[in-house]
Structures are given as C-alpha cells and as structure tokens.
Design goal:
- The complex is a heterodimer of chains A (about 350) and B (about 350).
- With about 350 residues, chain A is mostly helical.
- Chain A has 16 helices and five strands.
- Chain A starts with 5 loop residues before the first helix and ends with a helix.
- In chain B, the strands form five sheets. Chain B has a four-stranded antiparallel sheet. In chain B, strands 9-10-12-11 form a four-stranded mixed sheet. In chain B, strands 1-4 form a two-stranded antiparallel ribbon.
- The chains are: A mainly alpha (about 350), B alpha+beta (about 350).
- The interface between A and B is medium-sized, with 28 and 32 residues.
- Strand 1 of chain A pairs antiparallel with strand 13 of chain B, so a sheet runs across the interface.
Amino acid sequence: MVTLKVETLKKVKRTFYDAKSHYFSIVPTPSPYSTVVRSCKRAPDASPVDQWLSYALRRALISGSEVNRMDLATGVFRSLELKLPIYKLMTQTQLEEATRQAVEAANVLLKMPPVLKEWAPISDALAENKISERTEAAKYMFTNISYNVPHREHFIFVRGPSGTLHKPSGEEWDQIIQIYFPKGHGILTPIIFKDENLKIMYLQDWHADILNLCTDQFEPDSAEYIKVLHQTYEDIDKHGKYNLLHSTRHSGGMSWYNKKIDGLLIEKIQKGIVHDANNLVQLYHIVHPDGRLAQETKEQAAEGLNLIKVFANTETQMEAFVELTLQDHQDAFISHSATS
Amino acid sequence: MDQQYRPYSFFTKLTADDLWKGALAETGAGARKGRGKRAKKRRRKDLNRGQIVGEGRSGFLWPGLNVPLMRNGTVQSIAQRSKEEQEKVEASIVQQREEWERKKKIKVKRERGWSGNTWGGVSVGPPDPGPNGETYEDFDTRILEVKNVFNMTAKEGRKKSVRVLVAVGNGKGAAGFAVGKAAERMDAFRKAKNKAVNFLHYIERYGDHTIFHDVSLTFKRTHIKMKKQPRGYGLRCHRAIITMCRLIGIKDMYAKVSGSVNMLNLTRGFFHGLSHQETHQQLADKKGLHVVEFREECGPLPIVVASPQSALRKDPEPEDEVPDTRLDWDDVKAAQGMKRSVWSGLKRAAT
C-alpha cells in the first residue's frame, strides 16, 4: 500500500484503471504485413499475464486484427443511424492522414480482451485464528481502495467465519471491486447468459455481441467468462460461422482457443487469404510446440504451402478435405508466393 | 305471347347501318358542341352475331350449313329436328345471347390515380414499338395532367381538344415527358406517350436511390427545392414529383414546391434540375481533388467516391471558419426550431 502525500493527492486526478487496459500498456501498436517471427521464446511456467503478453505480440502478426480497408468499411465500425454522409474534398496527403486516423481508431476497437486461465481457487490461508472461529456469521473483507493502484494489485483480505484469513476467491474479488469501483452495469449476471437464451442467440448469429457483452460483464479470469467464451467458440466451430468474428476483437481469441483449427484453416484457404492460413498454422505451432508438427517443420524447414501440407499430414483429422481445398486454391498460393 | 315476325317490312328494306344510325342519333343538334348528356348513350349491337346460316325456327338440318356435309364418306341428306330438340337449341341460343349482354354490362373499374376521378398518376401502359422494331417494354408511362382545352373555329365555334402531359421512365435513370393533344382522350394518351419516348433524359442517381446533392431551382414562377435523403426515407414530395421519381428510379428524396404549381413548368423545371446535377466524378474532375465520403456507419473511415481523372491537386481546398454558402431561411428556421407548422412532423403512408 503506497501512501501519497497530501499535495500529490490534490494534484493526482482521479483516474480509472481499467483492469484490461493495464495489460495493454506495454504492448506496442501492431503493424500489419510484418514478417513472421520464427524463433519465439516462451517460458513454460510464465504467469498467465506474461504468457498472454507474448501471445499478443505474435497475435499482432496474425490477421483478424489486421486492419483491412474492407473490414473497416463493413465490420469494425457498426452503427444503424439514418444520417446523410458528409463529403469532403481532400488532397492525397489529407486522405492518407484521414486513413491513418481511421486505422488507429480501428486498432483501438480491435484491442483483444486478454485470454487468461481461470482464477486459481484459494490455496492456503494467510493466518489462522481459532479464537474468532464461529463467533461471527459473516465474512469480513478488508480492502485497499486507493485510486492510483490498479485493481489487480489491491490488497484484499477475507476473514471467513471459520476464522481463517485468506486472499479472496474470484467471485469475492469481483464483488468487492464492484462495490468501490462500479463498472456501470449491474453486479447480477444478466439472464442472457443462461444456456437456453444463449442457444437462441447462437441461432440468430449474435456471437459477436454475446462476446462483447461478456467481456464487459465478467472479469477475464472468471469461470463464467471462460465458460461463455468456450461455448461461443464451440458453436462457431460446429457450424463453421468463422466469418462472424472476422473483423471483431474476438477473432484472435478464437484462433488461440481452438485445439483443432481445421475448420478455420479450410475457411481461410477457401477465401484465399494465404498469409492468414500461414499465420494460423504458425500460431498453432507456437501454441503446441511439443506436437509432431513442430518436429516435422524443424526437419523440413517448411514454409508457406509446404508448412500447411505438413500440418495437414500430421495434426488434422480432416486431412483429405484440407488437401482438396489446397489443390483447389493452388493458383492463389502460387500467385501469392510469386509476389511475396 | 309469341314474338311478332314479319318477313317483309320497313326493317328489311334498310341495312343495319341505316337502322342503327336512325336509332342512335349520333349526329344531331344535341350531339354537337358538347350538349350530349353522359348518361344517355345507346350502344350499337350486332344482331347477326351468333347466327348460323341454316338455323331457323322450323329446325331443318342442312348438310354443309348447320350439319357436316360428309358422314362416313357419304353425303348426308336433309333432315329435321324434333320439336323438343328444336326447343332446346333455341333455348341455348337465347342463353348465349343473355350471357353476351351480361358481359357487356360489366363496368370495368378504372385504376385509381392520385385520387378517385383524376387521370393524374394513372398508367397507360408502355409506349408503342418504334418504326425500326424497338420495343419499350420496360418503360412505364404515367399521366400527369389531363386538360380540356378549347379554341374557336369559324364553323363550329368552340372546339374541344384534350391536352395530356405524360411522363415515361424505366426506373433505371432514363425518363422523359411530353404533351399530346387530340380530339379524343385515348388518342391524346397514345400521342403523348409515343412522343415522350423520343425525348428521354438520363438522370444520374447516387447509389440508385437518391440524387447526388440538394438542388433548388426556379423555373419561370415555380420554385422547387429538392434534398438528398438517406436510404429508407421514402419520397416525400408533391404527388407529381413522386410519380416522376418512381419512373426515374429515385426512392428517397424530399422536395418542396412553392410558387406556381403549373404542371408543365413543374415537370420542365424538375427534369432540368435533375439532368444538370453535378456527379461526384464531375466534381472531382472540376476541383482536381478526391471526393471523400464519411458515413455514420463507417465511423472515421474515409471512402473515396471519386478521383480526378486528370491531374491531382497538391494544395488543399481552402476551408473558412464560416462557410460561404447561401443559407435558406426556411431551413434555418427549421434548424433553430422556430418553425411552427402542423405539417412538419406528419406521418404519412410509406412510398
């Protein structure tokens, strides 16, 4: 707990630390069309935050967050107002400037929500106090509510009715933070996240909106968030509706999640987004460095088309299908490799 | 009582034309100069319709006339029907005649135009095919105005003529208008629509649903102010302008007509204004700059709608703090909330 002097307290404006934005403060702005980083070090027992940060760096290379003009026009900025467009006469420099600003704004919208593991359950007690056991029926929670401390680093202790002093569990942490730093939406879980309601939403292709709602509502390491997230991804994978998340900020998360990326890969090859498919396979390779794919690629030093073929041979279950689509789109591959 | 029958009488000495001429009395003092009453119109009926040579009251069957000539290779002989059969045949003939009468009497309801009794807004079908075989199947014609005009002649005095203003269009930007004049209404329609096809304007539309920019024009004493509207707005204009927009293919527009509402001047002004629009490409070429669109749905993304075909200017367009445009007092009042009109927020049927 840091105690600030009175003068500095007056100077310091009340700043809201968004728990998610804190993670992004270190990540550099991604640049599209950058080359692949082949050798990435990844500590196996890194904290979830570090793991995710390094992923974000690599994720920046993978499209879905690649800001494409068509994506901007059709997907990223969405609104349903009945207004007339504004016309301006611009020189080339002005146009480029305006495009740059639009790209920046799009990048802000495409900031991916973090992918974390579930909040670990309370492991050990910090202190045991047998005297106060069964004296109080309620839990006592002690919180540090200084404004300049990020939410994750607040010291919160819970003395339970059994007398033990321990760190809060995920739900307790969420509740306490919401009391002092309310988010704007209610604490109670909206009924839209119930299974039967989710099913209706999936039928009507509202996956992107569901994901936006749950990133706003839940913390990224809460159980419900992960559950809803996985459910949505499963549904998309089952029905092959990958295009729904194409220009949203959740596409990265989907690529990260999928254990079997066959469907996604096929969709990308069919669309002809060659570097996309490439990057996807490389991501898989990074995520699962212990698989056969990694060994094979090391042996053959495969790249591009060959990499996908190796992947098709080793990891996928729908091998024949992938190879068929590859053959169909050979021309696209050849032209891309000629230009790149 | 049996119907009277005279084989030789006054009626058999004259032709059907003469008899009908006498019965109908089309020419006469009453018919001239528009004095004839609308309700009193007798129609000529062809009494020989349905008659077969050989059919008569006695019911003889003449081979070659009311019975086939050959039967199984041999020529048939003359026969006579029985009384019951003859009655049946006569009854069927009577029934057939009654059905014809009934069908004639059915009044076909005329397509309703802008309102019950007007011809404005009524369609008269596509124009007739041209002399070189051109068909205008995709063109629709709509009447804008039907007027009875008179001029004085030496012999008859006041002579009525029907003047019709008609607009044609195919809904894809090609449209035109023309005036046709004739003594009869249907002839005037025909003349007008065939003439209109020879005077077509191609009107550029933005996104195939609206005009490129706001147009305010004055043609003679008619003032028209047209405003570009987004998709889904509909046509909120004068009924004649709505008809013409539909023929052109414009789906969303606001237009206000003030001053004179003379239909001819309104149409002429409207077409003049629309054909002299400045498309985005023309604007880009004129200024030498990109025409960039910022849509609400697309946020800060600039969409280049038109680029100059010739040189691209390097120096930007000078932008004043207060734009040097002529404001319309009506629009200013509406924007400031000073306009107190019962018609401003009115909800109408969708067009």
